[in-house]
Design brief:
One of its GO terms (molecular function) is molybdopterin cofactor binding. By secondary structure, the chain is mainly beta. It contains 5 helices and 24 strands. The longest helix has 8 residues. It is elongated. The structure holds ligand MTE.
Length: 353
């Protein structure tokens, strides 16, 4: 039986609850607090959160990409003692974040969890470098692909058993910045977030960061799974997250009339730091630059905008970020059947007065 999901015992005011999934409400975000507490981090599960006894836990690493294909297993003690502990601060985000705006802003029909913009957080992960563990497991120089498989129950959809949640990724990403994480923000992972060990591929779409990591198959040929061919694929497997922005306001928001109101928000990109954020308080007629606060690591960028003499009535707030690679947010996102990568500027409704 799956452990009760943490979101079920938390205040509804923190989340929008979609059953097996839960989304952070932006109005529950503390503007003073950079990191997203695990208790408020969105949850995205294909099945149910499993109960795993850390004493029995083993990570199995095997495959023809190792000098000995039989491979070996690591328990948590060995992982923690043998390898250097590292910390990585990064945005953690589901690629379907913003999906509901395909329907509400673009009148496009797509399937999947109808997230608004809360399937995202910034987390400081604690763990070990995957490259260190692969070296200890005897990685061969001609290995190209690694399949990560979770210990949660097989995913059955409309009577079809697709097997355990699993997704391959290139060895190059493993050697670059992939992490095997046991902690988030200095605490052990909560059950919903992958306890006792999860993979973290910084900057990549959420499905790449397999929770309750059971095994890593290392191969000299390209591996595939339904999670990179059938789902999370638009003309090829999706990898790096796009640029997105959100106002730290309820949906819809009510603001008091007055001389000025200070608005805050956050922008992020899977590829590079945020270089600028343009905001509009009149539905896109005029724009100004938001004041950016420095990002930490690969986390999001917080920003502030002072709105002078907002007129009473209904308005739309817009924010458009651009990252250091020049990637920005379009007015209209590219439509795809499963509603991934909604990166368009979101029109946030606000009433003043
Ligand atoms: N890993 C396993 N084993 N099972 C899952 O259902 N969901 C993935 C990914 N890893 C999933 C998984 C998806 S789609 C996302 S967006 C992230 O985990 C969500 O991580 P979180 O619930 O810790 O926020």
């Amino acid at each position: 039986a799956g452990a009760p999901a943490i979101r079920k015992v938390l205040p509804a005011s923190w989340f929008i609850d979609y059953g097996t999934n839960a989304e952070m409400r932006w109005e529950s975000v503390d503007p003073q607090r950079y990191r997203t507490p695990q208790a408020r981090l969105f949850v995205r599960n294909h099945t149910a959160t499993p109960t795993i006894d850390p004493a029995d836990y083993r990570l199995r690493v095997f495959g023809d990409g190792l000098r000995d294909p039989v491979g070996r297993s690591f328990d948590l003690r060995e992982l923690r003692r043998r390898f250097r502990t590292v910390e990585v601060t990064a945005v953690h985000e589901c690629t379907g974040n913003g999906r509901s705006f395909f329907a509400s802003q673009q009148r496009a029909t797509v399937s999947g969890t109808p997230w608004t913009l809360g399937a995202v957080g910034t987390v400081t992960w604690q763990g070990v470098r995957l490259r260190d563990v692969l070296a200890a497991a005897g990685l061969r120089p001609d290995a190209v692909s690694i399949q990560a498989t979770g210990l949660d129950a097989p995913y059955v959809d409309k009577g079809v058993d697709h097997g355990r949640v699993r997704r391959p990724f290139p060895v190059a990403k493993a050697l670059d910045d992939a992490l095997l994480a046991w902690g988030a923000n200095g605490r052990p992972l909560l059950p919903d977030h992958g306890y006792p060990l999860r993979l973290v591929l910084p900057g990549w779409i959420g499905i790449a960061s397999v929770k309750w990591l059971g095994s890593l198959e290392v191969a000299t040929t390209e591996l595939t799974s339904p999670w990179n061919t059938r789902w999370y694929n638009v003309d090829g497997p999706l990898t790096v997250n796009p640029v997105r922005s959100a106002w730290e306001l309820p949906w819809a928001a009510s603001l008091p009339a007055g001389r000025r109101v200070t608005l805050t928000g956050r922008s992020w990109s899977g590829a590079a730091p945020i270089a600028r954020v343009d905001v509009s308080t009149d539905g896109g007629a005029t724009w100004s630059r938001a004041r950016l606060h420095p990002a930490r690591g690969r986390g999001w960028t917080q920003w502030t905008h002072t709105w002078h003499r907002p007129a009473a009535g209904a308005h739309e707030l817009l924010a458009r970020a651009t990252d250091a690679h020049g990637r920005s947010q379009p007015d209209v996102a590219a439509v795809n059947p499963n509603g991934y990568f909604f990166d368009a500027v979101v029109r946030h409704p606000v009433t003043v007065g």
